[in-house]
Design goal:
8-stranded antiparallel beta sheet, 0% helix, mainly beta
């Protein structure tokens, strides 16, 4: 069970992409994607700036073949989340990293 969830939506995706993450409490830049990671999601949080960067493979979107999609965002410490964007083939989409629900 991870401590955060990643969601990507809109931007021409065929469906919302959701992944469970584990963000290391001591090294917040160390983000591990849990599960089978079919979308090849990679996320990095840059300590000191709070910038979020990474990519995923859009295998279910409107394109006939999977394509690598870059993500960019920023951590909002007071709101305890990160938000950002990606550019899809016909429109931009949104990403968020939010705390996982308590068990």
């Amino acid at each position: 069970m991870g401590n955060a969830n990643f969601n990507a939506f809109d931007g021409g995706l065929g469906a919302t992409i959701t992944s469970t993450l584990d963000i290391d409490a001591a090294r917040k830049d160390k983000v591990t994607v849990l599960g089978d990671n079919v979308m090849k999601l990679g996320v990095t949080v840059v300590q000191g700036t709070g910038m979020v960067k990474g990519s995923f493979m859009d295998a279910f979107g409107t394109l006939p073949a999977p394509r690598k999609t870059s993500i960019r965002g920023v951590v909002f410490q007071r709101q305890n989340k990160a938000s950002g964007f990606f550019t899809g083939p016909s429109a931009s989409g949104s990403i968020e990293l939010i705390p996982a629900a308590a068990p």
